[in-house]
Amino acid sequence: MIPTAAALPRTRRVLRHALVILVIVALAIVGLAVYRSAAAAGSLGDTPGGRHAPAPDAPDGAVTAADGLLPDGATAFDEGYPGVARLSPALLDAVKRASTDAASGGVVIRVNSGWRSAEYQDRLLQEAVEQYGSAEEAARWVASPETSAHVAGDAVDVGSYDAVDWLAGQGAAYGLCQTYGNEPWHFELRPEAVDRGCPPPYIDPTQDPRAHG
What we know:
Largest sheet: 4 strands, antiparallel
Strand order of the largest sheet: 1-2-4-3
Number of strands: 4
Radius of gyration: 18 Å
Helix content: 40-55%
Strand content: 5-15%
Shape: globular
Order of helices and strands: HHHEHHEHEEH
Number of helices: 7
């Protein structure tokens, strides 16, 4: 059957929507594959979902626990670290509840990165510019201090691969949602998701309206 002229705009909208979904899914698959590969190699500290350890020769001095740097194996219950303690109370509570339930099934949810100081976030952004070759490409992976959900205490990067996979499937019950298709380890609190499910993730941080606020 040949679509009528009136039906063509709707068909185009459906096709565009389907294409966006396919791109998001593809980016999520690539992101998870990279994350899993890094986990298997023991190099999560060098990936966007890892601890974001600064380069040892960084000119502005060392980033410390006071800036939000977390040790390997940190969880939502390690509130002695500012990177955990300075998360928003509602987000921290949700991650704790999810962690408890995940642990009953043998899955440990590690918090690789939580709250960050503005200085820490700026360091990450500058390192990303150097790594990716331009500010535009770096913005797909690291937000500015002014727009970062980590600086606001509203985001966690979790590990391991099993934890990412568990939260991707179960996180909505706690209001925890993947925010970016290219960063499947990055979760933020969306309380409405408990009843409605998580909204589709943005393709990458440059598509997030908060990045342009």
